[in-house]
Amino acid sequence: MRSSLTLVLFLLAAASLAQGGPAQPAPDSVRIPILVYHNIAPHRPEQTSEQRLMDVDPVVFKQQVNYLADHGFRTVSLASLVGVLESGAAPPDHVVIITFDDGWESQFEGAVPVLRQLGMTATFFVVTSQVGDPAYMTWDQLRELQDAGMTIGSHTRTHPMLTSPDVSLTDEVEKSRQDIRQHLGTTPDFFAYPYGAWDARAVAAVRAAGYAAARAFPRGPWNTPSDLFALRSVMVTDDMGAFVRAVTGSP
Ligand SMILES: [Zn+2]
């Protein structure tokens, strides 16, 4: 969502990534980058530079997905990452996980055709009370994505900071899961914390609601088995060099 809070948190995350994040991944770390996109929309002159960081231009998105295809990368689901983390199996090589937040219609228009053309899949984290609002995807569109092999996950009902004490975790975490089940006939296994913000109470609610894993703050491409309910991720921007470094791991 386009709040200044999103931007502040994003910039903090970007700053921590620029500092290289954790110096040395833990020995049981798995490197399967979880890429995070928001709007897939052309930049507009009135946007601030911070807003530009939240949007990826459709032309650049196509370049990024083409880069993956041309360099032998394929997309896997979050379920694959969970499987690797839980089993300790060797992670597959040349794979990424693509995720989209907030349920923007621009994703349906600007990203999905490109993904489908190249046989790639993604997870769409939707805010269930906003589905069908102007600029957001409808339940029919989400059903179409699901039928095309995409995964729909929960990003709460109203996109609050789950760490604030006056938020109903039951409504946001459990009932958003029920909303998706009711409208799509599928119970979502994955959750993404709005603003990446989580604490022990939020994690407990996500576990109790029955999710298999949850995506958190963009802190890099490495995850360990203990990160299942606060999976690290990588925010994607129009910066093609940063994209290549994130997916390949090259410096
Ligand atoms: Zn969001």
Question: What characteristics describe this protein?
Answer:
251 residues, alpha/beta, six-stranded parallel beta sheet, two-stranded antiparallel ribbon, 10 helices, 40% helix, binds zinc ion
Bound molecules: zinc ion
Which outline best applies?
globular
| Separation, N- and C-terminal Cα atoms | 31 Å
Largest sheet: 6 strands, parallel
| Beta strands, count | 12
Low-confidence stretches: 14-22
- Helix content class: 25-40%
Strand content: 5-15%
Mean pLDDT: 91
**Rg:** 17 Å
H/E topology pattern? HEEEHEHEHEHHEHEHEHEEEH
- Helix/sheet category: alpha/beta
Number of helices: 10
Characterise this structure.
The protein has 251 residues and is of the alpha/beta class. The chain is 40% helix and 15% strand. The strands form 4 sheets. Strands 2, 5, 6, 7, 8 and 12 form a 6-stranded parallel beta sheet that branches. Helix 3 runs parallel beside helix 10 (240-248) and helix 8 runs parallel beside helix 9. The structure holds zinc ion. Residues 1, 101-102, 155, 159, 194 line the site of zinc ion.
Explain briefly what this protein structure is:
The protein has 251 residues and is α/β, with parallel strands linked by helices. The chain has ten helices and twelve strands.
Topology:
Layout: H1 4-18, E1 30-31, E2 34-37, E3 39-40, H2 49-54, E4 55-56, H3 58-70, E5 74-75, H4 78-87, E6 95-101, H5 105-110, H6 112-117, E7 123-126, H7 139-147, E8 151-154, H8 169-184, E9 190-192, H9 200-209, E10 213-215, E11 222-223, E12 234-235, H10 240-248
Parallel strand pairs: 2-6, 2-12, 3-4, 5-6, 6-7, 7-8, 9-10
Antiparallel strand pairs: 1-11
Helix pairs in contact: 3-10, 8-9
The chain binds zinc ion (ZN).
Residues 1, 101-102, 155, 159, 194 line the site of zinc ion.
